[in-house]
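Sequence in, structure out.
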Amino acid sequence: MTHQLTFRGATIPAEPGQSVAAALIAAGITDWRTTRRGGRPRGLFCGIGVCFDCLITVDGLPDQRACLVAAADGMRLGDAEPGADLADAGRTGGEDAARA
């Protein structure tokens, strides 16, 4: 039985056992949030829960790692909450500022 997830108003199919990140990637969605500074796209990076690039809001719960959350029928997916950009936390200049 294929699961149906909702992401930004679109229905995304997911196979049983598939992670939220895998379902999004399979649907051609490679980024689902942007960085707080510079608005750079973020999505799946490590795929094993070590980094925080794939943060997403799942059923209203922010800061979920899409690569670790199992897809379930009826899930509502959205952007990570503003300010949840852990990848850029604490950066104040240098290379990050040059890209912004």
